[in-house]
Amino acid sequence: MGKRVLITGGGSGIGRAMAETFSAQGDRVLVTDQDAAALATCPEDWIAVQGDASDPAHMREVFARIAAEWGGIDVVCANAGIAGPTALVEDVEPEEFRRCVAVNLEGAFLAAKYAAPMMKAQKSGAIIITSSNAGLYGFPNRAPYASAKWAVLGLMKTLAMELGPFGIRANAIAPGCVEGPRIDGVIEREARAKGTTPEVIRAGYEAGVSMRSFVTAQDVANMAAFLASDGARLVSGQVIAVDGHTENPDPKV
After folding, report:
1. Residue 58 is inside which H or E element, if any?
2. What are the residue ranges spanned by the domains of the chain?
3. What's in the keyword line of the UniProt record (predicted)?
């Protein structure tokens, strides 16, 4: 009956595109998200659970339900994340930093922690973590986000080493700027911080990409589906950029 797939942060954006893509190929899908309104729009054949991916109690509940209803898990897309503040490092409040790291890094850790015993028991599985090209470069005015997205790569590499002997693969996707409300908000905040216009910031981002384009959530979802497939059976421990090739992460225009 297809794969059993968990997507955190699956109510909208990249996570929603992932869920739709897996569902369309006949897989069973469970999505978690904090946004009840977004979850209310999920198809009836999905399992939708509201909660915070960085909350251990919530994630224990999610995996208890997976065990009860599916008896195991084949694919975990640790996708939940938040943009965090846009500010110089000296202007970032400690709580803002901690919250950004908690959702982006601790959420991925919890998903892996609770998936690992199930996947080890069945000697198969794929863990896919959503990083960012902010996890490949420095990112001025986004220290919390860049820190978290670099950190998930260390987590992924370690998972690949620990779980590989059990037939379990771990990889990360590093999207570039993904079209949608989140990047629009980032651009607006950066424009205010730099005293310029959103159009100038957007043009600068595009100029720093070889293909001169933002990506879509579907572009990222397509990569997740590949990494979960038998076609990627020996792809593990890798960071796959889906960004049109970033030449300069902080271009000046």
Report:
1. helix 56-69
2. 4-176+216-242, 180-214
3. Oxidoreductase
**123 labelled catalytic:** no
Token digits of residue 178: 């993904």
Q: Which two tokens stand for residue 166?
A: 């059990």
For 168-202, the pLDDT digits (tens) are 999 999 998 777 777 787 788 888 878 888 888 88
For the whole model, what pTM was predicted?
Answer: 0.91
Residue in 23, 145, 205, 236 annotated catalytic: 145
The rounded distance, in Å, linking the Cα atoms of 163 and 149 is 21
User: Which one of 132, 147, 205, 236 is the catalytic residue?
Assistant: 132
Which is catalytic among the residues 54, 114, 131, 149?
149
Give CA–CA dist 14/51, Å, rounded: 17
Is 145 among the catalytic positions?
A: yes
Q: Give the end-to-end CA distance of the chain in Å, rounded to a whole number.
A: 51
CA 146 to chain centre: 13
CATH classification of 4-176+216-242 is 3.40.50.720, yes or no?
yes
Return the amino acid letter for 250.
Answer: D
Longest dimension (CA), the chain: 55
